[in-house]
Amino acid sequence: MRTPAPTTARDRPPEEAAEDTSFARGLRLLLMVADRGEIRADVLSALLEMPLSTVYRYLRTLADFGFVDRHGGQFRLGPKLLIGTGANVSSERLIRHADAPLRMLAHETGETAAVVRRTGLSSICLHQIESDAPLRVTLEPGEMSPLYAGAPGRVLLAFAPSEVLDEVLAQDLIRITDATPTEDELRDGLGGIVMTGMATSEGELIEGSVAMAAPVFREDGIVGAVAVIGPAFRCGEAWRTRTGRLLQEASRAINAALAEDRTP
What sign has the CA pseudo-torsion 67, 211, 24, 51? Predict the structure, then answer.
């Protein structure tokens, strides 16, 4: 049975295509604010090659929903997205301090290592170091996944404010694969993640894969998570035991680096 080709903006009525373009521009702007921590509207305009008046229009709309907040002459992520999520650490800082630990993880485990953080009800990959193996699993930077599926997202969900879990459960949990957890399985597993500081998933986002993840904390909450993902046939019990220890080591290294770095 052939899978229907995905619908593109060109396949849709003009008014829907325009909405998609507008949404994509707004999302790029929001992600740029998240990456920079704080940024001026004119800098956004230059980086995104977008008219300043358009940038301000998007910022006003995002501010109305609590997604961005104005601080002096700069804009940053707002309370709707940042309650309890290590808001004082920008994605840029997190990527910078995670790079060396990720390289260690990729080298020691032989698999792809990544750092992710929560944006709303999604997990977004900020940075990855790919496995050198010809057959490997990757999480592309900018790729977004639901919080309920896969070890990286579930670590973020386990340590998120309770209202985030409520919002996730209020939605239909779409089964991405046969292994994607149900609502009951999701509820049952979160407590164990909080107790152990570790999550493991098998084929929940990508069939035939195994992922492990550990949280990265700061004083105001979880900042993100470090993860390792690879093909299941290479990721047996001995690999998982060793990778769990390495993930905890990487998490501590990132925490220490962030604590020493006082830059905004």
Answer: positive
Radius of gyration for the alpha carbons in the chain, expressed in angstroms and rounded? 19
For Cα atoms 256, 149, 214, give the angle at the middle one, nearest 5 degrees: 15
Please tell me whether residue 69 adopts helix, strand or coil conformation.
strand
Predicted structure pTM score: 0.70
Which ranges in 134-182 belong to alpha helices (H)? 151-158, 162-170
pLDDT in tens, 195-228: 999 999 999 999 999 999 999 988 767 899 999 9
DSSP 10-36: GGS-HHHHHHHHHHHHHHHHHHHHHHH
Half-sphere exposure (Cβ direction) of 156: Cα atoms closer than 13 Å: 32
Helix (H, G, I), strand (E, B) or coil at 234: helix
